[in-house]
From TrEMBL:
Substrate binds at H78. The lineage of its organism: Bacteria, Bacillati, Bacillota, Bacilli, Bacillales. Residues 13-240 form the Peptidase M24 domain. One of its GO terms (cellular component) is cytosol. Binds 2 divalent metal cations per subunit. Has a high-affinity and a low affinity metal-binding site. The true nature of the physiological cofactor is under debate. The enzyme is active with cobalt, zinc, manganese or divalent iron ions. Most likely, methionine aminopeptidases function as mononuclear Fe(2+)-metalloproteases under physiological conditions, and the catalytically relevant metal-binding site has been assigned to the histidine-containing high-affinity site. It comes from Seinonella peptonophila. This is Methionine aminopeptidase. Removes the N-terminal methionine from nascent proteins. The N-terminal methionine is often cleaved when the second residue in the primary sequence is small and uncharged (Met-Ala-, Cys, Gly, Pro, Ser, Thr, or Val). Requires deformylation of the N(alpha)-formylated initiator methionine before it can be hydrolyzed. One of its GO terms (molecular function) is metalloaminopeptidase activity. CDD domains: MetAP1. A divalent metal cation 2 binds at D106, H169, E202, E233. It holds the Pfam family Peptidase_M24. Its cofactor is Co(2+); Zn(2+); Mn(2+); Fe(2+).
Length: 249
């Protein structure tokens, strides 16, 4: 397994790539509302990424045809944008990647459209907290299993499902690098974390069953029981001063 530890120069470029992604999420946050289509958001974000001198990371990645991944309601990940307008009560995760000066930034965020139930509001809060609990373990000396165990025990302790079929990953010159970062697992298992690693931590948490099924498009993954799924993701650098989030303003 080849793990690429990043130099200070590489981390500075990745911080710039991450900032572009964070600016895209800020644009989504102010644009997403009932009546807008995710296809319109896709075009908006592609324009924004290219204006920053970057390229969309996902477009063409293993043949994926769009700039953003859209996970609406029971979709877990890798869904396509559509021309169906968003409506009040929808839950939408938008995953964005930007490829800048040879390096990727990767971050997903869940957005509530209009009024949503307290149960789903809580699910979003728990998933976001699970992400930050996982990030806190992204320190030299811990393992990928420590990150996963922290996320799993917190979310499952509250009766929620933790998706197993899709995991976090290293990120750098390649969008999906080693190591894999499951959001479940045993403490002390997996890969030892070292300074210089850059990791995309991205828990996907469901209100019901954690298992996934794939649509006929070969991409869209959704929950087997139709339960709502939410996701939050940041790209994080492991440094001697602890974890540093790269995909934030």
């Amino acid at each position: 397994m080849m793990i690429h530890l990043k130099s200070a120069r590489e981390l500075a470029i990745m911080r710039d790539a991450g900032k572009i992604v964070a600016e895209c999420h800020a644009l989504i946050a102010e644009s997403i509302k009932p009546g807008i289509t995710t296809l319109a958001l896709d075009r908006l974000i592609e324009k924004k990424i290219r204006k920053n001198g970057a390229k969309p990371s996902f477009k063409g990645h293993h043949g994926f045809p769009y700039t953003i991944c859209v996970a609406q309601n029971d979709v877990i990940c890798h869904g396509f944008p559509t021309d169906t307008p968003l409506k009040n009560g929808d839950i939408v995760t938008i995953d964005i990647g930007a490829h800048y000066r040879g390096y990727h930034g990767d971050s997903a965020w869940t957005y509530a459209i209009g009024q949503i139930s307290p149960q789903i509001r809580k699910l979003m809060k728990v998933c976001k907290k699970a992400l930050y609990k996982g990030i806190a373990k992204a320190k030299a000396g811990y393992t990928t299993g420590d990150i996963g165990h922290t996320i799993q025990s917190y979310a499952e302790g509250l009766g929620l499902g933790v998706v197993r079929d899709f995991v976090g990953h290293g990120v750098g010159q390649v969008l999906w690098e080693e190591p894999k970062i499951p959001h479940f697992g045993e403490p002390g298992s997996g890969t030892l974390i070292q300074n210089g690693m850059t990791l995309a931590i991205e828990p996907m948490i469901t209100l019901g069953d954690w298992r996934a099924k794939i649509d006929s498009d070969g991409w869209t993954a959704r929950t087997v029981d139709g339960s709502i799924c939410v996701q939050y993701e940041h790209t994080v650098a492991v440094t001697k001063n602890g974890p540093k989030i790269l995909t934030t303003l």
